[in-house]
C-alpha cells in the first residue's frame, strides 16, 4: 500500500532521519517503536505530507507520490493523527471533524449531513460529545478520540496513529485497540506508534524499530519478536534494563512524619469524605477508573480544587490556598498530560528546567549565576537521557523528550511532596526505568510521593501501597504480596470482596 525509502531529514545540525524506509501492507497493523528522539514522528510526518524530506521517495499503491502538504496526502488517502493534540479548541465538535471542508447541500454547509456521517464513527470510538459543544471544553479523552474520528472520516487507505493512547485512560485505549484491529480487518494499512510495548505486541502484525534516525529492525513479524529483544534493539544496549529493578519496592526505610494528609475531604461531584495520609518516605498509589476520584486527590493536594468540607494539610501544616501556594510549600506536580504540559517552548531547556526553583527563591532572593543554572539543568537532562542541547529551545524536542524536561523541572525544584499523574506517558522504556529509580531515591530521602497512573504495572512496581477509589470514595487499599496487577484491576472495577482492607 505504501513504500517509503531512503528518507533523509535534518533539523539544523540534528539528523532526524538518515535513510529510513518502511513498507506498509494493506490489512496490517505495523508498529513503529524507538526511544524518544529516534525519529518516529519525523518519519510519519513525512509519510503524511506534513514535513518534506530532503531525500528519499514515497510510493502509494506502487505509484510514486510527492505530497505538497497534509491536505494533499489526505486527498490521496493517507490520514494522520499526530502526537500533538490538534483540535481547534474554539470550533465545535462538528467543525473539528471536517477540517478540509464540510459536506454541502445545494451549496450550503449541511450540519445534518455532518452529523449523519460522524455519528457511526463516533459511536464506534465510544464517545458521544454534543455536536455543537466547543471542542476545547471536552475532556482530553474525547478530544483525542475526536482527532481519530476526524482521520477516519477522511476514509483513508493508510491511517497513521502517533501515540494515540498517550492521552487515553486504559478502557479507552482498549476500545481503540479494538477499532484499530477492525480497520485493518477492512483492508486499511495502519502505522501505529506507541511506547507501551505490551500494547504494541498485542495490536501489531509487524514491528519496525528506529534508533538514532536509522531502521535497526525492519518489519519483523510481531509473533517472532520478544519484548526483551525489542527493548534491546531500541536502546542499542542488550540488558540495558536489567539494572532496573522490577521487584517489589522495599518498605519505606524510616517513615517520616505525615507529610500530606486529607481528612474527611468532600469535593462535590468528585470526592466524598476521603481521608488519606502519606508519610515522608512513602510512595502511595492512587487508582481508579475514570472519574473515580483518585485524580481529585491530586487536585486537592496541588491546590487546584478547594474541598467543600474536610481539610488538606501540606508539609508546612497549612492547607493549599492556591496552586502557587502548593508549589511554594514544596509540592511538585508532574502530569503526563503532555498535550498541555506548560513548557515554555520558545525558551531554552535550561530556563525551563530551572523555572520552578526560581519561583521558590522568591523575587528578593539572590540571582544564581546563569552558568550554574545551565550546569544544573544539564545534569538533570543527562540523567534522564534527554536528547537535546541545554541551550536549544524546548519546542524542537521530540514529544517524549519534552516530557522528560517537565520531569527535570520538578527534580530541580527539590520538592518535599511529589504529586504524579501518569508521569511516564510517552516516555521510552529506558527513561521510564530511570524515572522510577529517581522517584524511589526521592522517597528514600524522605519525600512523600502520591502517584496516579493508568499504567497499572507502574503502580505495582513503584508503590508501597495503592489506595483504590470508586465513585469518589476510597474502597480499600492493596500492599505487599496482594499488590499485583490483576488484584488492582479487579479492585478498580469491582471493588473488594469482603472486608479486605
Ligand atoms: N521542529 C523541529 N525542530 C528541531 N528539531 C526537531 C524538530 N522536530 C524534530 N526534531 C529533532 O529530530 C529528532 C527526532 O525527533 P522525533 O520527533 O521524530 O522523535 P520521536 O521518535 O517521535 O520521539 P518521541 O518518542 O519522543 O516522540 C529529535 O532529535 C528532535 O529533537
Ligand atoms: Mg514522536
From TrEMBL:
Keywords of this entry: ATP-binding, Cell membrane, Membrane, Nucleotide-binding, Repeat, Sugar transport, Translocase, Transport
PROSITE patterns linked to this entry: ABC_TRANSPORTER_1 (PS00211), ABC_TRANSPORTER_2 (PS50893)
Family matches, as CDD domains: ABC_Carb_Monos_I, ABC_Carb_Monos_II
InterPro entries on file: AAA+_ATPase, ABC_carbohydrate_import_ATPase, ABC_transporter-like_ATP-bd, ABC_transporter-like_CS, P-loop_NTPase
UniProt domain ABC transporter: residue ranges: 2-237, 255-496
Gene3D superfamilies: P-loop containing nucleotide triphosphate hydrolases
Protein name: Sugar ABC transporter ATP-binding protein
Gene Ontology MF annotations: ATP binding
Pfam families registered for this protein in UniProt: ABC_tran (PF00005)
